[in-house]
Automatic annotation (TrEMBL):
<dbReference type="GO" id="GO:0016813">
    <property type="term" value="F:hydrolase activity, acting on carbon-nitrogen (but not peptide) bonds, in linear amidines"/>
</dbReference>
<comment type="similarity">
    <text>Belongs to the peptidase M20A family.</text>
</comment>
<dbReference type="InterPro" id="IPR002933">
    <property type="entry name" value="Peptidase_M20"/>
</dbReference>
<dbReference type="InterPro" id="IPR010158">
    <property type="entry name" value="Amidase_Cbmase"/>
</dbReference>
<dbReference type="Pfam" id="PF01546">
    <property type="entry name" value="Peptidase_M20"/>
</dbReference>
<keyword id="KW-0378">Hydrolase</keyword>
<protein>
    <submittedName>
        <fullName>Uncharacterized protein</fullName>
    </submittedName>
</protein>
<dbReference type="InterPro" id="IPR036264">
    <property type="entry name" value="Bact_exopeptidase_dim_dom"/>
</dbReference>
C-alpha cells in the first residue's frame, strides 16, 4: 500500500491511497469467508458468523485513514488487530456464540473532511447522513466526501444506523498517543473514558491596504488580530491545565505589499472536566471578539464544528478488557483518552471500551510514530480476550 516518502502515511479519507487500503481490506476479509458489506458513508463491515446469528455482532473497529503527516499505527493498528482476531478464530476452529464484525470506519481523522469520527457519529445518530456527505475538503471546497466516495467506488448501499445495523458491543485498540504507559513500564492501558473536546472555525476580516504607505495607527490587520488569538489559545490551554491549539490557518492577500484583510483559522480545546472546558472556550471567544473590536476587525464567523463532552466507557466492556489483561498476566493501568476515536460514538448506543498500547515517546500523527511488534501483539491479545469474555456473557444471557 502507498505510503509517504518520509516513511509515514498520507492516506486522507477517500483519496486514492485510501481506496488502495480499502481494496486490500476487502480482499483480506473475503478470503476469510466473512460476509462483507459497505454502508452509505463508506464504512466497511466484515462479519464472521457465530452460533447465534440472531443477535447483533460484537464489533472490533478502527480506521485506515490518516492525517496529512501521519504514522502507520494510528488507526491501522485497530483494523489489523480486528483482522487478527478473525484469523485466530478461523485457524483455531473456535466458533463464537455471537457473530464478530470488524469495521473500517470512514473518515475518523477528519483531516480532509471535518469533523472527525464522521461515520461512527452518523451510525450512532449523533450526525445526520446528509450533513456528513455534504462536508467539504479543506483544500478544495468543490469536493464533498459524498462525491469522493462515489469517485473511489465506496458509496455503499448498507444503512448507516445502529438501529438497522446494530452491534452488541464495540472494542478498539489504539496507540496511546502519550507517554503514560511507556514511562510506567506497563504493557497495556485499559481505557475507561475520555476528556471533552471542542473544535472551532473562526473568520476575521479587516481592510487590505498598502504595507509601505499605511500608517501603523490606521491599520485593520486581520493577521495581527488572529496572531493574538493564537497566543491566547496556547495561554488558556496551559493556564487551565488542559490542551489548546490553533491548527488550520489561512490569510489573504498573500503578497509583500498588502496588509492581510482575511484570516481563517481553526482551534481545538480539550479538558477532562466539562465545567473547565466550558470556561476555556468561553474565555477564548470573549478574547477574540474583544480583540477584533479593539482592532477594527469583523468577526465574520465563529462556528463550533465539533463538541464532545467528557465521558465514561461502559463498565461491563471495561471489565472485559481488564479481565483479559489480568488473565494474560499483563501489567496495566486505567487511563482516559485525550482525543477522539470512533469508540466515543459507539459508546452512545452499545457497551464500548478501548485498549491502549505504548508508543515510542508518545508520538502520533507523525512519521516517527512507532509501537513495537511485542506491544502490538500484547494489545491484540487483550482485545481478543475482551471479545471472548463479552461473548461468554452473551452466551449466558441468550443461550
Amino acid at each position: 500500500m502507498a505510503g509517504a516518502k518520509d516513511g509515514g502515511l498520507r492516506r486522507l479519507s477517500c483519496d486514492d491511497n485510501d481506496k488502495i487500503a480499502r481494496d486490500w481490506f476487502a480482499d483480506e476479509v473475503k478470503a476469510l469467508g466473512c460476509k462483507y458489506e459497505v454502508d452509505k458513508i463508506g464504512s466497511q463491515w466484515a462479519t464472521m458468523e457465530g452460533e447465534n446469528n440472531d443477535i447483533p455482532p460484537i464489533g472490533v473497529g478502527s480506521h485506515l485513514d490518516s492525517v496529512q503527516s501521519g504514522g502507520k499505527f494510528d488507526g491501522p493498528l485497530g483494523v489489523f488487530t480486528g483482522l487478527e482476531v478473525l484469523k485466530v478464530l478461523k485457524e483455531s476452529g473456535k466458533k463464537t456464540y455471537a457473530p464478530i464484525s470488524v469495521i473500517n470506519w470512514t473518515n475518523e481523522e477528519g483531516a480532509r473532511f471535518p469533523p472527525g469520527c464522521m461515520s461512527s457519529a452518523v451510525w450512532s445518530h449523533q450526525l445526520s447522513l446528509d450533513y456528513a456527505l455534504s462536508c467539504t475538503d479543506t483544500a478544495d471546497r468543490t469536493r464533498t466526501i459524498g462525491s469522493e466516495l462515489q469517485r473511489i467506488g465506496y458509496a455503499g448501499p448498507k444503512d448507516v444506523s445502529y438501529k438497522t445495523n446494530p452491534l452488541s458491543a464495540h472494542f478498539e485498540i489504539h496507540i496511546e498517543q502519550g507517554t503514560r504507559l511507556e514511562e510506567a513500564g506497563l504493557d497495556v492501558g485499559v481505557v475507561d473514558g475520555g476528556q471533552g473536546m471542542r473544535w472551532y472555525d473562526v473568520s476575521l476580516r479587516g481592510v487590505t491596504r498598502h504595507t509601505d504607505t499605511t500608517a501603523m495607527a490606521g491599520r485593520q490587520d486581520a493577521l495581527v488580530g488572529a496572531s493574538k488569538a493564537v497566543l491566547e489559545v496556547e495561554r488558556i490551554g496551559k493556564a487551565y491545565g488542559g490542551m489548546a491549539t490553533v491548527s488550520l490557518f489561512k490569510s489573504a492577500p498573500q503578497n509583500f505589499c498588502n496588509i492581510p484583510a482575511e484570516v481563517d483559522f481553526s482551534f481545538s480545546m480539550q479538558h477532562p472536566d466539562a465545567a473547565v472546558l466550558a470556561a476555556m472556550t468561553d474565555e477564548i471567544e470573549a478574547f477574540i471578539r474583544a480583540t477584533a473590536k479593539q482592532s477594527g476587525l469583523e468577526v465574520k464567523s465563529y462556528e463550533n464544528v465539533w463538541t464532545f463532552e467528557p465521558f465514561k466507557f461502559h463498565d461491563e466492556a471495561v471489565q472485559c478488557v481488564e479481565h483479559a489483561a489480568k488473565e494474560n498476566g499483563f501489567s496495566y493501568k486505567k487511563l482516559i483518552s485525550h482525543t477522539g476515536h470512533d469508540s466515543i460514538y459507539t459508546n452512545f448506543v452499545v457497551p464500548t471500551a478501548m485498549v491502549f498500547t505504548p508508543c515510542k515517546d508518545g508520538i502520533s500523527h507523525s512519521p516517527l510514530e512507532y509501537a513495537s511488534p511485542k506491544d502490538c501483539s500484547v494489545g491484540a491479545q487483550v482485545v481478543l480476550g475482551a471479545v471472548l469474555k463479552y461473548d461468554d456473557m452473551l452466551r449466558e444471557r441468550h443461550g
